[in-house]
């Protein structure tokens, strides 16, 4: 992934903050100049707007309660979101995400069948309409069409195909949403567009893991009180922080033979510490470098067959979550 793409992502939250600070919001655009020669269009009374909003909300609640597939909700969102206020648009998209929490497991189970996987074998990703049309089994075609219409996407790992939520598809709605929800969608889309790991190993670079972590940190600095903030902290930050400072089973941050930190991992810690010294991630990277300097670059001691913890390394790792939270609060205070 090119660095410029990550830079663009990280600017999303910063831009939102700057616009909010000037007093502008998406739901309150600057008025256009009025031409005195043109007749003034009469705006509907506030009560009519409130009634229309209430009716749309009621219709959404009905669709949401009766829907069996995400595709039914997406169809409504696609056709009616433009009529919704900023607040109702946020509610509709958050309801969509809540639906996925209940539906994702069921949807994935539908794909993990002995009959379905052989039919999918050899299917090229991303799946196109032509790919679906070429599947000989009508039931499988209908299943995949329904899931794709519900903003699911197919991925493959260890030879099996299964669906995940395509958060990138929700970028189509961000103009109608609050800045914090749009920024959250960017964070989620980052992972659904380009997975950070597969089959027990990292499939992006150490720097890219750090930059995703920095983007999540930016979100938490700007939007600590949103409904999504807890998830960003407990899932995204926790996940990326573990990957960055520990590695994974198939891509640890140390060499199995020497038990020393890998050169590419250490080089990333140095770059992030130097380029982002005023961030929590940059400060943690520098602290880890300081600990590695004490251990001579060793992450473990002993032998490859009998690895043992080094107290300084283990202490850093054990305190990692608490250190992130403490440093984040300090950064928030400095920005206020």
Structure commentary:
With 336 residues, the chain is mainly alpha-helical. It is 60% helix and 8% strand. The chain has helices at 3-21, 46-66, 70-80, 86-111, 116-120, 129-133, 138-149, 179-193, 206-222, 229-245, 263-275, 280-295, 311-318, 320-335, and strands at 152-157, 160-165, 197-198, 201-202, 247-248, 251-252, 300-303, 306-309. The protein has a two-stranded antiparallel ribbon. Helix 1 packs antiparallel against helix 8 and helix 11 crosses helix 12. The longest helix is centred in the N-terminal third of the chain and has 26 residues, at 86-111. The model is unreliable at 1-36 (pLDDT under 50).
Cα-based radius of gyration, to the nearest Å: 24 Å
Distance between the termini: 33 Å
> Which percent band covers the strand fraction?
5-15%
What coarse outline follows from CA principal-axis ratios? flat
Mean pLDDT: 87
The major beta sheet can be summarized as:
2 strands, antiparallel
Strand arrangement within the widest β-sheet reads 1-2
Could you give the count of β-strands?
A: 8
- Compute the number of helices: 14
Q: By helix and strand content, what is the structural category?
A: mainly alpha
Helix share, percent: 55-70%
Question: What's the SSE pattern?
Answer: HHHHHHHEEHEEHHEEHHEEHH
Low-confidence stretches: 1-36
């Amino acid at each position: 992934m090119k660095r410029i793409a990550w830079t663009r992502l990280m600017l999303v939250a910063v831009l939102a903050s700057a616009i909010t600070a000037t007093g502008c919001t998406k739901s309150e655009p600057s008025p256009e100049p009025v031409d005195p020669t043109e007749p003034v269009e009469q705006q509907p009374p506030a009560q009519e707007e409130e009634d229309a909003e209430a009716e749309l909300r009621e219709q959404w609640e009905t669709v949401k309660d009766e829907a069996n597939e995400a595709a039914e909700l997406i169809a409504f969102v696609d056709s009616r979101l433009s009529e919704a206020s900023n607040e109702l648009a946020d509610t509709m998209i958050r309801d969509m995400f809540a639906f996925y929490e209940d539906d994702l497991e069921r949807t994935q189970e539908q794909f993990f069948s002995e009959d379905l996987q052989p039919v999918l074998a050899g299917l090229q990703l991303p799946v196109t309409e032509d790919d679906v049309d070429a599947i000989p089994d009508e039931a499988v075609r209908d299943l995949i069409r329904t899931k794709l219409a519900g903003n699911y996407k197919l991925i493959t790992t260890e030879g099996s195909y299964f669906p995940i939520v395509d958060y990138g598809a929700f970028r189509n709605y961000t103009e109608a949403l609050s800045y914090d929800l749009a920024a959250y969608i960017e964070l989620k889309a980052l992972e659904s567009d380009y997975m950070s790991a597969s089959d027990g190993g990292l499939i992006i670079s150490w720097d890219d893991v750090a930059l995703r972590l920095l983007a999540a940190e930016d979100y938490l600095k700007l939007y600590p009180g949103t409904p999504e903030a807890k998830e960003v902290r407990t899932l995204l930050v926790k996940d990326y922080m573990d990957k960055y400072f520990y590695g994974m089973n198939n891509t640890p941050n140390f060499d199995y033979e020497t038990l020393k930190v890998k050169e590419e991992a250490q080089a990333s810690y140095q770059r992030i510490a130097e380029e982002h010294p005023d961030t929590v991630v940059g400060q943690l990277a520098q602290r880890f470098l300081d600990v590695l300097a004490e251990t001579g670059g060793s992450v473990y001691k002993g032998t490859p067959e009998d690895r043992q913890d080094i107290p300084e390394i283990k202490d850093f790792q054990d305190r990692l979550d608490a250190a992130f939270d403490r440093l984040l609060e300090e950064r928030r205070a400095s920005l206020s």
